[in-house]
Amino acid sequence: MRAIKVHTFQKEKYTLVFGAFILGFTLLAGRLCYLMIFRSEELSKKALNIEQRERTIKAARGKIYDRNGIVLADNQAVCSVSVIYYQIKEPQKVIKLLSQKLALSEEEVKKKVEKVSSREKIKSNVPKSVADEIREAGLDGVKVDEDYKRYYPFGTLASKVLGFAGADNQGILGIESRYDDVLKGTDGKILTLTDYQGIEIENAAETRVEPVNGNDLYLSVDYNVQCYVQQAAEKVLKVKKAKRVSVILMNPQNGEIYALVSLPEYDLNEPFVLTKAYEAEGKNQNDKLNDMWRNPVISDSYEPGSTFKIITATAALEERKVTLQDSFFCPGFKIVEDRKIRCHKTQGHGSETFKQGVMNSCNPVFMEIGARVGAKDMLRYYHKLGLYERTGVDLPGEANSIMHKLDKIGAVELATMSFGQSIQITPLQLMRAVSAGINGGRLVTPHFALEKKNPVTKEITEYEYKEKADVSSTKFISEEAPRGNIYDSNGNVIATNKQTYALTYMETLESKKAFYKTMDKIFQILEENGEESQDDLALKVDENGNIYFDFKADGESAKRTLEIRFKRDRGLNEDIEKKLFKEKEGDYTDAEIQEVNDKLMEISAEDVFYHLVKSYDLYKVLLPEGYTSEEADELAKKYKD
User: Fold this and answer.
1) Between the CA atoms of 542, 547, 550 and 551, what dihedral angle is there, to the nearest 10 degrees?
2) How far apart are CA 496 and CA 97, in angstroms?
3) Angle at 38 between CA 36 and CA 42, to 5 degrees
4) Residues contacting residue 92 through CB under 8 Å, at least 6 positions apart
5) Of 360, 372, 386, whose CA–CA distance to 480 is shortest?
6) Within the chain, how many helices (H) and strands (E) appear?
7) Using an 8 Å Cβ cutoff, are 248 and 431 in contact?
8) Separation between Cα atoms, residue 437 and residue 470, nearest integer Å
9) How many Cα atoms within 13 Å fall on the side-chain side of residue 180?
10) How distant, in Å, are the alpha carbons of 178, 249, 428, 574, 633 from that of 447?
11) What is the DSSP letter of 443?
């Protein structure tokens, strides 16, 4: 009986063990099938990564050009030197060679050579000639890879604009930082097979992924203009013994910055070496470097002083609180509440018109017109002219203005604001606001980048910038602020003061239709002065920009008018230019101009006037206001017919 029980127990035990074995085998087989079928691709990649060593091939950073194609930031071929621990056979030779060639201490090199790692970098940005000497030594475990270092061919030129790239070729400051995603390329790589110890397998094939270089960037900066402006600024710095000098040169029509200088500049090829101007300051090294790199034109606000009077004048003229002929008296100061605020000319300018007050930069005049405008309207124009917002310039670190709140502005604050004190703005904010006063009331975005170019496809992408229109009205006809007089052939004024109509640049018109309204007014004035016939009408322009209408032209006046226009604009339009000039490059000789003058004698005055109209393509500027080209052309022909 007992034997039977023992036999049964043994049988159950074997069955249990066998069942456990079968269950385990089934689970393992299932797991293996899962890994082989569903995760095979993933695990293959992981295995390959373990068996492959990746070496980076650096992509060249995109070049930076000025507007004329001159290279401002380039790349210089350098190398990086590294070691692979498991491949080094003669460590002492490696340490000695790298120490000598790379100008490093043996202890520093020894630490890196003896460090157990798959790859240890010894030094970057090694000159190619030095790297070639290391490569030629042929020591096992020493790797030399091609790399790039940023190079600035003109050293200190536009350093506060361009900024620089670091050792890893990443943009740190200026344009290099702002457009880092445009300029940096995509690194390539070399994949090498290794054994379980990380040692490269000899004669094994390598997988190479080529790098993609960064896009080239074209700036609005003009190299020649930048050089000239920087030289002029350096002269001022020396003569005035100033601590710093900043200059901006910008196109007010579109915000393109042709030059920006902020002295002292620094060497972009040695950005971590302090210049003499910053060595003596009692600060730590990092603070000194930050001060040297800082661009005050962008990052610092200041009291603009008398340059701000342009803004005050704009507000007063826009609100019709002053005319050019308004009279003022400057005794050398103005009493505002309990303050005696002086003019820069302490003995005073005496009696003067507003126009003269602007020319004299007279503080009492601007305090008076500031009071006429009032604090509320003055701040409203500050807002309209963009003085409460950053300009949006494409450089990092732009500061904003510091202004009074309306309820904190008393008579004294308003007076000092009127000539640019007790408020702070950046130089670029002032430049932008002033531009709106002379470009037809458009608030442009100051900028440097014009376009980027793909080095492979050669595709060009132009940058676009925001613009606000009608922030101020630059009027073509202004009864309150006349711009010139109309005279007859004897020099007598036939329209002045509130009847003054002056021709100015067409792009500054608040309304393009104003030109034609002006022509109607001019002909009306001519008729009122007893000159109904327009057959002999001619125009003359003096050095002050006044337009002369000669009623009894003998041909001479017409000749002089067109001579001025031809010399300036090289022809009124293609039709008349072809009749008068031979097609050629360069300036015309005196004999050729005389030949043109003789031909002008044969052109009627009405033809002269018609071509003056067409010279600015005035019929085209009407198109945005709803005119068809045929309708606009009819308007232009009106003054010939």
Assistant:
1) -170
2) 88
3) 85
4) none
5) 372
6) 25, 20
7) yes
8) 10
9) 15
10) 12, 11, 10, 34, 36
11) B
Say how far apart CA 258 and CA 210 lie, in whole Å: 37
- Report the C-alpha gap between 579 and 574 in whole angstroms: 9
- The DSSP 8-state label assigned to residue 597 in this structure reads H
| DSSP-assigned states of every residue in 419-435 | TT-S-BB-HHHHHHHHH
Q: Which residues does 197 contact at the CB level (< 8 Å), separation at least 6?
A: 86
Burial class of 296 by CB neighbour count within 10 A (0 to 12, 13 to 18, 19+): middle
Report the relative pairing of strands 486-487 and 547-550 from DSSP bridges: parallel
CA distance readout (Å), 98 to 91, 92, 123, 140, 170: 11, 10, 9, 13, 26
200-215: b or e for each residue (b if 16 or more CB lie within 10 Å)? beeeeeeeeeebebbb
Residues 6+ positions from 250 with CB-CB distance below 8 Å: 256, 257, 258, 431, 435, 446
Q: Which two tokens stand for residue 50?
A: 């373990």
Report d(CA 573, CA 396) in Å as an integer: 44
* Interior/surface letters 557-595, b for 16+ CB within 10 angstroms, e for the rest: bbbbbbeebbeeeebbbeebbeebbeeeeeebeeeeeee
Q: Which two tokens stand for residue 600?
A: 């002008």
- Provide the pairing of β-strand 257-263 with 327-330: unpaired
Which residues are paired to 216 by β-bridges?
453
Residue type, 162: L
> Angle at which helices 411-418 and 375-384 pack, to 10 degrees?
40
- Averaged in consecutive runs of 10 residues, what is the pLDDT profile of the chain (641 residues)? 60 73 80 76 60 75 95 91 84 88 88 82 87 87 86 95 88 95 88 63 69 94 93 91 92 94 94 87 84 93 94 91 90 92 92 92 95 94 94 94 93 95 95 89 94 92 89 44 40 37 29 40 46 39 43 37 33 40 50 54 45 42 47 54 47
Q: Which of 98, 152, 140 is nearest to 121 (CA)?
A: 98
442: nearest Cα among 468, 422, 464, 462: 468
The span from the CA of 484 to the CA of 476, in Å, is 11
Read off the tokens for 239: 């003569």
* Token representation of residue 224: 């020649």
Residue ranges with strand state E in 505-599: 538-541, 547-550
pTM: 0.65
Q: Which two tokens stand for residue 410?
A: 């008393």
Q: Is the dihedral of CA 505, 510, 515, 518 positive or negative?
A: negative
CB 112 within 8 A of CB 83: yes
Q: How far is CA 150 from CA 59, 170, 407, 453, 562, in A?
A: 12, 10, 52, 19, 53
489 given a catalytic annotation: no
| Cis-peptide into 264, omega within 30 deg | yes
The residue annotated as part of the active site, out of 306, 422, 473, 604, is 306
